[in-house]
Amino acid sequence: MEDIRLIATDVDGTILPHGGKISEATRRAVRRCRAAGIPFVIASGRWIGALEDIVCAVGAEDQPLIVANGGAVVAPDGAILHEWTMDERDAWDAYGVLRKYDVMIVSYVRDAAYRLNTAAMPQLPGGYMGKRDYRAVDDDVNAFEAEGLRGVYKLEAITEDRNVIARLRTELLEKTRAVITGAFWRNTEIQSPGMGKGTALRWLADSLGIPAGNCMAFGDNTNDVDMLEAVGWPVAMANGAERAKAAARIVAPADVGDGVAQTIFKYVFGEKLS
Length: 274
Hints:
The chain is built from 9 helices and 14 strands. The protein is of the alpha/beta class. It folds into 2 domains: 6-83 and 196-268, 3-Layer(aba) Sandwich (Rossmann fold), CATH 3.40.50.1000; 88-191, Hypothetical Protein, Haloacid Dehalogenase-like Hydrolase, Chain: A, domain 2. The longest helix has 14 residues, at 162-175.
């Protein structure tokens, strides 16, 4: 058993297999953590409304959340505990690149998601915004530029074209100082330097009086790397990106094999998942 006092986990590709459901093994692991007084924190690129079903499924309704890729730490009722927003110049520079490509552009701010070129995604990704007091403002360039480029938690580009994503990421890296990550192959997430899940998790752990060395974090993709680097016990999923695995102390079994639950039982409680 290790002295692990806080656990944070990504959702998609980590505790939630793509197209799947939260498993009973994951729920058991969370119950054990809660009984032992170990906070279990969801850290996602999604906004709080899109996490409600996940939070309920794992049994962490009374826990704080890291949302919008670390743009904010929120209380269970949605109240902002702390937030980090993009430098406005970074947002405009990234927007200048994004609008040259046939991608859906999304800006997440405190109370809305501003989306441009929604025609690029005939079937909008389901469940990534949710229902709780979060509005979508679609295809309104004036509103996007006046309201969607201030106080930005993250910008996002989404497309089904892998070649477009590759060219876009290359140009963003060449022409902006933004941090470029992704949760899955068809999206690109953009934030200012110093932002991310890792920054948010360090703040949360410090606010709870828990050293980073006693925190465990799970992730599968590039937008989880800074969170893995921020803790003493970084865990990447076997189904994850190579960059995530390179940042990990442990490579857990794949999401479909209950890798999070297996790792928690083994390292936190010294038991084998049965």
